[in-house]
Specification:
Number of strands: 21
CATH superfamily of the largest domain: 2-enoyl-CoA Hydratase, Chain A, domain 1
CATH architecture of the largest domain: Alpha-Beta Complex
Shape: globular
Largest sheet: 6 strands, antiparallel
Oligomer: single chain
Number of helices: 19
Structural class: alpha+beta
Low-confidence stretches: 1-22, 233-241
Length: 675
């Protein structure tokens, strides 16, 4: 995951080279007790980071851009003239960190805050009249292609950019049934809250943002956590956080959902999804609070709360039209180990008048109950022990094949991943780990016993990461399993937490390699048989992050190959593709995928014309209803007339198709054996 913006990035962050501006904001100065932390950070990065980097002008230039991006991500406060003035510091950030003199970062920060104050104070004076006079019949649009938005050259140009942004927000509120009398006050409250948060900025916030512009230039997983952020990070890693069970990040002014914790409240409820944006947060009996532009750790604090209580979220769904929002509520709970434990189900597949059973082992994470182990509990839970027990139960139920379901499994214990792979192979290597010195360590299964030697599939998707990729890659290289689904995340790096004088450094120190010698980094694991997916590789995965470490290759290890899976693919793929054309759930899904991709590719600007927006919304609703009714007709279900009637189904077409592919494999293998 991109922890760079997970707990660190700030919106209300900017600084000052001009000390004569008359504003309420008190300029921040570097805390002298962090001078040594800056030096310590430089030394540590150069000594222990995997790439053994030199923090030099090249790093400084990249960090300069990242620092400005973390402060003003959608170019809404600085002018091009500001950037031109600040650019003289482009090659000085490395020296600032190394010398423990971070005044430059604070100067930039303070200038930015002054720009924020000036802009928002000016805006608040005219906002009510501006909103009252918006003409929603006018043909105009707002550029939302933020990667290609340029800095405004004049104040008038920036005024116009802001006018369109506010008009877009006002129109969105209007179309989502906010009273016209309330629209201006809702928007006004957002910016007053933003100004209030400026007053709450602390010097350590600036240091953390600056430090992480340096670490982000190295790779997306190396992160400095100041004491407060460090505490929040540790809470999340221990899963003791009582909340909704979602990993969040700051992204271009918004709080965005990165992934859902398996077994958590949000995942169970199935209304929140990766890439959804959170616009407002509310508590029982209290008004919703707009969180656009709010510090991420403050948003996290608002979502966190006592178990059993509800939190209300106004979200902009990633799968929507980019303009419609909805409000959901989630009951906070603590994510429990048993909610993440391995589980099983059996899928019945009809072939030739007979019913065949395929067992599915669902594994949300690689876990081990360390507390129970330390207490001497012989019945402690672990992913390997639980999976082994489930496999033995499935064998008793006469399954003809097994599918290991690693979808949305973001990783966990490396030792557990290693031992779990060993359930399906005799002793042998499973993963290679290369450290900062170039030394390669081989981890493997030392137990010659095999729990299951029959036909095996591994089901993965774009959210299968780290330890999941190690297991999938090992079983693929051994020819021990068919890999089914989507390309995996591509996180093939190892991070270690290093304590610092103040805070912690999570630093990349090693890379994973398959037994074949290929890295899982960046490229991930490619499935043998690919299933359609709504997860967009361009926005989700290691390759979507900034400055990921590259893919590379080392020497392979010695390992046997049990099945040459490539020999079966000419038979398996055509049969799979034919079912994709016939199976109603996948037909509907492929249509939705194509629709989302078409919208994404063309979504460079958003109309500020009410009629056009309503037309687009209506067309989207009609498409969704038509798609659902086509699916329902094929399944013999009654048609619907509105989107509200669409209900989530417990049917899992992916697991069903995985079972179908496994039967094709068994049939092809039997035919091959007779030849």
């Amino acid at each position: 995951m991109n922890y760079k913006r997970l707990l660190v990035s700030l919106f209300v962050a900017g600084a000052s080279l001009t000390h004569s501006l008359a504003n309420a904001y008190t300029e921040l100065q570097p805390p002298h007790d962090y001078d040594s932390v800056a030096k310590e950070l430089t030394e540590m990065l150069e000594a222990v980071h995997y790439n053994k980097p030199t923090i030099d002008d090249r790093i400084s230039a990249s960090a300069f851009d990242l620092y400005l991006d973390s402060l003003d991500p959608i170019k809404s406060f600085f002018l091009q003239s500001d950037i031109d003035t600040l650019s003289k510091h482009r090659l000085e950030l490395d020296d600032a960190l190394r010398n423990g003199d971070t005044q430059i970062a604070y100067d930039i920060y303070n200038l930015y805050i002054h720009r924020v104050e000036d802009r928002l104070n000016k805006l608040l004076k005219v906002l009510p009249d501006m909103v009252d006079n918006f003409d929603y019949t006018k043909k105009e649009s707002l550029n939302v292609d933020f990667d290609n938005v340029q800095w405004s050259k004049t104040s008038e140009e920036l005024d116009e950019y802001w006018r369109k942004r506010i008009k877009n927000r006002a129109l969105t509120l209007k179309l989502n049934n906010t009273s016209e009398d309330e629209i201006a006050s809702v928007i006004e409250k957002r910016y007053r809250n933003q100004l209030k948060r400026i007053e709450q900025s602390e010097p350590v916030d600036v240091f953390q943002t600056f430090a992480n512009s340096i670490t982000a230039a190295l790779d997306p997983h190396t992160t400095y956590f100041a004491p407060r952020a460090s505490e929040t990070f540790n809470i999340n890693m221990s899963l003791s956080l009582e909340g909704i069970g979602a990993v969040l990040q700051y992204d271009d002014d918004y709080t965005k959902v990165v992934r859902l914790i398996p077994g958590g409240p949000a995942e169970k409820q199935n209304e929140l999804a990766p890439n959804d944006r959170i616009l407002a947060v509310g508590q029982d009996g209290k008004a919703m609070v707009d969180v656009v532009g709010m510090r991420l750790d403050d948003v996290v604090d608002m979502i966190r709360g006592e178990r059993g209580t509800k939190v209300y979220l106004e979200i902009q769904p990633a799968k929507g039209d980019g303009q419609t929002t909805k409000t959901i509520n989630i009951t906070r709970e603590k994510v429990k180990l048993e909610d993440q434990a391995a589980a099983k189900k059996i899928i019945n597949v009809e072939r030739g008048g007979q019913t065949y059973k395929v067992g599915v082992v669902e594994l949300p994470t690689f876990y081990s109950d360390f507390a129970a182990i330390q207490a001497g509990d012989k019945n402690y839970k672990s992913s390997t022990r639980d999976t082994k027990k489930i496999i033995e139960e499935l064998r008793q139920e006469d399954v003809i094949a097994i599918v290991l379901d690693l979808r949305n499994n973001g990783g966990g214990s490396l030792q557990e991943a290693n031992s779990l792979a060993g359930l399906f192979i005799p002793h042998g290597p499973t993963v290679q780990i290369k450290d900062t010195s170039g030394r390669v360590t081989v981890m493997g299964d030392r137990d010659p016993s095999v729990t299951y030697s029959g036909p095996l599939g591994v089901l993965v998707n774009r959210m299968s990461a780290s330890a999941s990729e190690i297991v999938a890659a090992a079983l693929q290289d051994y020819g021990r399993a068919l890999i089914l689904g989507g390309k995996t995340f591509g996180k093939g790096t190892v991070q270690v937490l290093q304590e610092m004088d103040k805070g912690q450094l999570k630093v990349t120190q090693a890379k994973f390699y398959r037994v074949s010698g290929e890295s899982t980094q960046h490229k991930g694991v490619h499935p043998d048989v690919e299933f359609p997916s709504l997860l967009d590789e361009k926005s989700v995965g290691e390759s979507a992050l900034e400055n990921p470490l590259p893919w590379d290759k080392i020497h392979e290890t010695r390992y046997p190959i049990y099945w040459k899976m490539g020999d079966y693919l000419p038979v398996l793929k055509p049969r799979h593709e034919q079912r994709m054309k016939e199976e109603p759930n996948f037909v509907a899904m492929v249509d939705q995928i194509n629709d989302v991709r078409e919208q994404t590719s063309s979504f460079k600007s958003i109309s500020l014309n009410e009629e056009e927006r309503l037309t687009r919304r209506k067309e989207g609703q009609e498409k969704t209803i038509a798609r659902e009714n086509t699916r329902r007709k094929a399944l013999g279900l009654e048609p619907i007339t509105s989107e509200d009637e669409i209900e989530s189904t417990e049917d899992d077409p992916y697991a069903k198709e995985a079972a179908e592919v496994m039967l094709d494999f068994i049939a092809a293998n039997q035919l091959k054996s007779k030849q």
